[in-house]
Structures are given as structure tokens and as C-alpha cells.
Amino acid sequence: MTTTDIPAATARRTPPPAAGKGAGRRREGAAWVFLSPWVLGASVLTLLPMAVSLYLSFTDYDMFNPPRWVGLRNYTQMFTEDPRYWRSVGTTLLYVVLAVPLQLAVALAVALALKSVRRAKGFYRSAFYAPSLLGASMSIALVWRAIFNDGGTVDNLLGTGGWVTQPGWALLAVALLTVWQFGAPMVIFLAGLQQIPGELYEAAAVDGASRGRQFVSITLPMLSPVLFFNLVLQTIQAFQVFTPAFAVSAGKGGPADSTLFYTLYLYDRGFVASHMGYASAMAWVLLIAIGAVTAVLFRTSRAWVFYAGEETR
């Protein structure tokens, strides 16, 4: 090798120089520029209002006079001196336990039916999804109230009287409105069903497994991550339900507090009674409760949610 070949060989073996600190800072600056709309929106529209709400939860504030610091009085009053608060908690828990399983069962049943449809699947999927887009509106809630009111469609068909005027039936009427909005979880279930290999069902059929056995042994385990996702999402939404209860009860939570959901009572305390400090304390308790329920769901999911490629527990 000649002396003229040494620099060339060395150049071929030498890695390119690392980018300097200036280039790294420029890339970091560009990243922050693109993230700035989200950071600004999260700070101004989420974090700042949450901080203000936390402060107000320790004050007596009526929205007209400056807040007055009262410490933990709102929380102690909530837990020990307010029976309507505990009625709202019980009503909300009953609604969640009733509405969420029914909604997921209907969504899964419709998804299983649509899986076998060969023609116009897109039309049926859109048609069943439409209630999820419309059901959260006040107009649909008012129509629902008319259907279940005295002299409404349900009363004319069943002769049971208006459900929304009977304490034993009003909550069920609101729950059925939530069940009717099964489109969003149905679409997610349908996507999950399409990911299950057909060979599993063919092998099970060869072994003589019935459709029920295939559903229990193949469909449910393979669909468990999607089921868990829908369960968490719909549970969180159910704890925050407001519009149907407000429309059905005209904002009062009646009859006999049977539709006094937590968020409806929070609205009543904050915007009707002008006890915004008390309402802020209720909001933070709701946030903590939803976080606790979500944590429990994630904890229990280890026993029944199975992911592809995961070893048997």
C-alpha cells in the first residue's frame, strides 16, 4: 500500500462525524414549534381550569363575590351532611351497572351479525353507527322523553304509563337511550372480529365444536382486548352522563330523585344554587372516583384479557 492509499482507506473506515449540539437544538426547537398548539391548548383549556377548580373546591364561591377560603368544609359537608349527594352517587352507580353491560352486549351481538353480512355491509355499519352521533344531543333526548312520557309511544303500546314519570322506570328509560347509542363500540367490536383468523373456527368445526362453544373458546378470548377497551371507555362515559338525565327530568333529577345523576346534581349545586366551590369539590371527587374505577379495571384485566403472542398466565 502506498502512502497515497492510507488516507483513502482511513476515510472509508472512519464513521461520519456526529451531529453537533447546534443541529440537535434546532431539531428540538422544531419539535416544540409543532407541539406548541397542543401544549398551549392543554395548558389554557385543561390544566389551568383544573388548577382553578382545585382551588375553588376549598372555597365558598357563588360566582358573584370573591371566593372565601373554607378549607375542607365542602368535602366534609358533601360526605356527612348532604343526603342528596349520596342519592346521586347511588343513582349513578346503578346506571353504570345497568347501562354499560347492556350496551356492550347489544354492540357485540350486532357486530357478530354484521360480520356474516356479505352485501351492503358499509350501509348497515353506517346505519347502526348513526345513533352514536345523534344520541348525545338534547333534541334526541327530548324525543326520547316524549316516547316514554304519559301518552307516548311506549305508553300506547304497553299500557304501563309514562316511564319518565314513574320512579321505578325513569332510570331504565335513560339507560335504554344509552344502550341505543351502541354504534361506536359496535364498530370497534366489528374491527376486532375481523382480525380473528378464520382457521381457528374451521379447526373447531372439524373437532365438532358448536357455535356456542366457538364463541366462548375462540371469539371471547381473542376479542378480550377490544372488549376491555370498550368497557373502560363506556364506563368512563357513563359516569359523566348528563344530557339524557337533564332532558328526561327537566333538570330536576325526578321523579323522586330517580334520575339524579352525579353530574346533574353537580350542575344543580354549581349553576342553579350558585355553590360553585361545592360543585368544584364534587368534580374532583368524580375525577378521583373515575381514576380509581379505571385502575381497578386495569388491575382485574390481567385475569381475563389475553393478547396475541402472550404466554398463558
Automatic annotation (TrEMBL):
The transmembrane segments are 31-58, 93-114, 126-148, 168-193, 214-233, 276-298
Q: Which domain of life is it from?
A: Bacteria
Q: Looking at the keywords, is Transmembrane present?
A: yes
Q: Which intervals carry biased composition (Low complexity)?
A: 1-13
Q: Where is the ABC transmembrane type-1 domain?
A: 89-297
InterPro entries recorded:
ABC_transporter_permease, MetI-like, MetI-like_sf
Provide an example Pfam family for this protein: BPD_transp_1
| Record's keyword terms, sorted | Cell membrane, Membrane, Transmembrane, Transmembrane helix, Transport
Bilayer topology annotation: Multi-pass membrane protein
Family annotation (PROSITE patterns): ABC_TM1
Main location per the UniProt record = membrane
Instruction: State the residue spans of region: Disordered.
Output: 1-24
> What Gene3D superfamilies does the database record attribute to this sequence?
MetI-like
**Cellular localization per UniProt:** Cell membrane
As for family, the record states:
Belongs to the binding-protein-dependent transport system permease family.
Q: What is this protein called?
A: Sugar ABC transporter permease
